[in-house]
From TrEMBL:
Organism taxonomic ancestry: Bacteria, Pseudomonadati, Pseudomonadota, Alphaproteobacteria, Sphingomonadales
Xref: CDD domains: MPP_PhoD
Chain ranges of the Phospholipase D N-terminal domain: 41-130
Protein name: Alkaline phosphatase
Domain PhoD-like phosphatase metallophosphatase: 142-510
Superkingdom as given in the UniProt entry: Bacteria
Record-linked SUPFAM superfamilies: Metallo-dependent phosphatases (SSF56300)
Listed PANTHER family: ALKALINE PHOSPHATASE FAMILY PROTEIN (AFU_ORTHOLOGUE AFUA_5G03860) (PTHR43606:SF2), PHOSPHATASE, PUTATIVE (AFU_ORTHOLOGUE AFUA_6G08710)-RELATED (PTHR43606)
Species of provenance: Sphingorhabdus contaminans
InterPro entries registered for this protein in UniProt: Metallo-depent_PP-like, PhoD-like_MPP, PhoD-like_sf, PhoD_N, Phospholipid_Metab_Enz, TAT_signal
Length: 541
């Protein structure tokens, strides 16, 4: 069977899959997730190359022991002639996941694939595509981030899965969230779908969390229809993660390295991704995509404005930080090894576009003084303090978020300077913030590239705390405060980005879903911007 999704199929199956976990007896259904046998979570593909692709499934032998699973791939949906295949042994040591890389495929072509179990049963049929070689006139990429089961339906996945104008999917991170029910989600009705119910800490916890997320029919459809290249951000491990810890990890939760290693092991088990922490993907003469890691490998511990705000003289503390620790060249997102790889790869790139994927915003945002008017008078004190910190930082010339590239300005400069040296047409694509952004990225007073920042699949943006305030007012305030780089912002919609690359332009559309509160593929008016080769600044599309 094929899992290619259309509107009718989505609405017909809306009551099944992950939705079943919200029914009475949902805990029993969670136990059933652990006891499923056969092909439990559909199929997926990733790591596309011109002649190869990685194919994924999960197969559980009824005995719970090892299984030898085969895969077939064909250029035709009916598998009249196979183009290749492979086999491997899986078992409980890798949570019964199967990842097989198939070589010697034709470049730039759609392929269909299916897995075959030892008893002859077959998985659903998936579809994937190899990367083009040579001349490429157009290439379309769907870009996602921040998908939290606790906050609503994954309608963005379903909408993209039903499209025919996508060649590749990128996920910029926060594919899952680590929190338990009733925490970050505030006890929303959708939180009942989150398993295990408590915050995840161990190998078994992370595996069950992925099993619950991957039961969602819209996410399964997306994976079954297109190859995906995923990046990590923090919630694959824990909030505000860095090399040596995380904001949402405390000593009583055990050793951070053990938790981080468990999280990354399961990320690799459950996603169609290889073992390399970073990699480049050639898209003919049109583009090269660079997958990076800015969380788990070498990121320095971030600073936080709250620590400065609590000093005896906050204004002086912010100024001292701006002139000192903020500019420390040792502060890194990538680490020196990854930087060396990336800068060399960009210098060698001969394609029109250099597309850099990184978890968090690279463009700078500054908190306007008007932000205090965005929130009701009875807003939580925590929210008010966050805004006060941002305003104090802006007065000192500091961006509001030090956990994104705003906290690592010298490292950011190194990336942008490398792009300038190579005269690259740099397009940075990001996630993390839950809101939509478009930035020009200057370095040393000259254009270096642009950023398309993606809004979330379901996690709430500014609108969750600014009820009753016109989003256009918030956007105008933000743009006025951040006018050096910020060219457009949306703080009230969920969805995904659709990036279309041609030799003439890189055009990005922010696709806004009508709702995440119910299963629906309806959209509302979105927004488009583009950049032309050699210009390195944004314009309307």
């Amino acid at each position: 069977m094929s899992f290619i999704l259309n509107r009718r199929a989505l609405l017909a199956t809306a009551g099944f899959g992950i939705g079943g976990l919200m029914l009475p007896g949902g805990a029993a259904m969670a136990q059933a997730l652990l006891g499923l046998t056969g092909f439990t979570h559909n199929v997926a593909s990733g790591e596309p190359g011109p002649n190869s692709v990685l194919l994924w499934t999960r197969y559980v032998n009824p005995t719970g022991g090892p299984s030898k699973v085969r895969v077939e791939i064909s250029e035709s949906r009916d598998f009249a002639k196979t183009a290749g295949g492979g086999q491997m042994v899986t078992g409980p040591w890798r949570d019964h996941t199967v990842k097989i890389t198939v070589d010697n495929l034709a470049p730039g072509k759609w392929h269909w694939f299916r897995f075959i179990a030892p008893d002859g049963s077959m998985s659903p049929v998936g579809r994937t595509k190899t990367l083009p070689v040579g001349k490429a006139s157009k290439f379309n990429i769907a870009i996602f981030s921040c998908s939290n089961l606790g906050f609503g339906e994954f309608n963005a996945y379903g909408h993209a899965a039903a499209r025919e104008d996508i060649d590749l999917v990128l996920h910029m991170g926060d594919y899952i969230y680590e929190y338990g029910r009733g925490g970050y989600d505030g006890g929303a009705k959708f939180a009942a779908r989150i398993f295990p119910a408590d915050e995840i800490l161990t190998l078994a916890d992370y595996r069950l969390r992925y099993a619950s997320y991957r039961s969602d029919p819209q996410l399964q459809a997306l994976h079954a229809n297109f190859p995906m290249i995923p990046n990590t951000d923090d919630h694959e491990g824990a909030n505000d993660a860095w090399e040596g810890g995380a904001q949402n990890h405390t000593p009583d939760e055990g050793d951070w390295n053990a938790r981080r290693n468990a999280a990354m092991q399961v990320w690799r088990e459950w996603l169609p991704v290889g073992e390399q922490p970073w990699k480049e993907y050639p898209i003919g003469d049109l583009a090269t995509y660079y997958r990076t890691d800015t969380r788990m490998v070498a990121r320095s511990k971030p600073n936080f404005h709250g620590d400065l705000m609590r000093s005896a003289d906050p204004a002086k503390a912010f100024a001292d930080f701006r002139d000192g620790a903020w500019r420390d060249p040792a502060m890194t997102m990538f680490g020196t090894e990854q930087e060396s790889w990336l800068f060399g790869a960009i210098a060698r790139n001969k394609a029109t576009w250099a597309v850099l994927g990184t978890g968090t915003n690279m463009g700078y945002n500054f908190t306007p003084e008007e932000a205090m008017n965005w929130f009701p008078k009875d807003a939580p004190e925590r929210t008010k303090n966050f805004v006060r910190q941002g305003i104090a930082a802006a007065k000192a010339g500091l961006p509001y978020n030090l956990d994104n590239w705003g906290g690592y300005p010298v490292a950011r400069s190194r990336v942008l300077a490398a792009a300038q040296r190579a005269d690259a047409n740099l397009v940075v694509v990001t996630g993390d913030s839950h809101n939509g952004w478009a930035f020009d990225l200057p370095e040393d007073g000259k254009p270096a590239g642009v950023e398309f920042g993606g809004h979330s699949v379901s996690s709430p943006g500014f609108e969750s705390a600014t009820v009753g305030v016109d989003p256009a007012v918030i956007a105008r305030n933000l743009q006025e405060a951040s006018k050096q780089e910020l060219r457009w912002v949306d703080t009230s919609n969920r969805g995904y980005m659709h990036l279309s690359l041609t030799p003439q332009a890189a055009t990005n559309e922010w696709v806004f879903m009508q709702t995440v509160k119910d299963v629906s593929l309806e959209t509302k008016a979105g927004h488009r911007m583009k950049v032309r080769p050699g210009r390195k600044i944004l314009e309307s599309a």
